[in-house]
Amino acid sequence: MVASYVVVLFLLIELLISGAEALSMDYYMMSCPFMDQIVSNTVNQALRQDPTLAAGLLRLHFHDCFVQGCDASVLIDSTEDNTAEKDSPANLSLRGYEVIDTAKKSIEDQCPGVVSCADIVAVAARDAVFWAGGPFYEISKGRKDGRRSKIEDTVNLPAPTLNSTALIKVFGQHGFDARELVALSGAHTLGVARCASFKNRLSNFDSGNDVDPTLDSSFSRTLSRACSAGDDTQVPFDRTRNSFDTGYFNALQRGMGLLSSDQTLFTDPRTRPVVSGYAANEAMFFLDFQQAVIKMGLLDVKEGSQGEVRLHCRRVN
């Protein structure tokens, strides 16, 4: 009888331990109950001062999750003997690091050594979307921070020149279907792209076309004038760069997608109906986006001893 009791007690303890490590909405309920509020306050204050950071925080989450999973590896600084992810050409334009640093410091003052940088990145992206007028969604927490950040790992980030077939393949490798690809691409309703990312569409496009034929002719001339100022010139993805809305999909319908990887979604018959559906129905886009971004936030997460809780987001412990 005693032996049976001991076995049952051991199993209960084991379940509690494993449960404590699993992701959940209430992961910090006892250990840091104001985590969400601290991140929200930090994000809202930053966006009041600079609304363009909404795009930066969302992009930071995407670039983190698509490389080694959602483990805040994109935040780690390079050292003398290691070039980190953030110094990859694909990540040089990332923004919002200081917002994550500020939130982390405030949380460490309240709950030292408890909340991971990976969870802060995920919550900050969620709050940025909501601040910009997008949907609010609950996310599970309990991600641990990774200990690896290497520039070579960023090779699989989707390039702005990819066509829909390549995009469907890349996103498919992470478990997303074509509809989820379009929903996540809708994040480009926020922010800008640099001319270096799309200048290939404006001249010497291919053997038969000087300008990308899927690009609206008037828009191409506007882009050419803007980009005459240099590769670092920034152009908004749509007319409402700081608002999370359907403007991005409306732009694709008019041949005014900025990147090749944007316009290809309307050109390809496999994804065009989804683009048109989102352009006409904001509620549908919001619902699909929140489901897809929640799924993205669970990519290859590290739990328990697979990672750590960094004391400073820019370096491993």
TrEMBL record:
Residue positions of the active site: H63
According to the UniProt record, what class of enzyme is this?
A: oxidoreductase
Give the protein's recorded name. Peroxidase
An example GO BP is: response to oxidative stress
The species this protein belongs to is: Musa balbisiana
Which residues of the sequence carry a binding annotation for substrate? P158
Q: Which GO terms describe its cellular component?
A: extracellular region
Provide the cofactor list for this protein: Ca(2+); heme b
Keyword Iron tagged: yes
Tell me which family the UniProt entry assigns to this protein. Belongs to the peroxidase family. Classical plant (class III) peroxidase subfamily.
Q: Indicate which residues the UniProt annotation says bind Ca(2+) 1.
A: D64, V67, G69, D71, S73, E85
Where along this sequence does the record place binding of Ca(2+) 2? T189, D238, T240, D245
A Pfam family (short name) is peroxidase
Which reaction is recorded as catalysed by this protein? 2 a phenolic donor + H2O2 = 2 a phenolic radical donor + 2 H2O
Q: Which residues form the signal peptide?
A: 1-22
User: According to the UniProt entry, what is the EC number of this protein?
Assistant: 1.11.1.7
**Compartments (UniProt record):** Secreted
Q: Which UniProt keywords apply?
A: Calcium, Disulfide bond, Glycoprotein, Heme, Hydrogen peroxide, Iron, Metal-binding, Oxidoreductase, Peroxidase, Pyrrolidone carboxylic acid, Secreted, Signal
Q: Which InterPro entries match?
A: Haem_peroxidase, Haem_peroxidase_sf, Peroxidase_pln, Peroxidases_AS, Peroxidases_heam-ligand_BS, Secretory_peroxidase
The disulfide bridges present are: C32-C111, C65-C70, C117-C313, C195-C227
Q: What does this protein do?
A: Removal of H(2)O(2), oxidation of toxic reductants, biosynthesis and degradation of lignin, suberization, auxin catabolism, response to environmental stresses such as wounding, pathogen attack and oxidative stress.
**Site (Transition state stabilizer): residue numbering on this chain:** R59
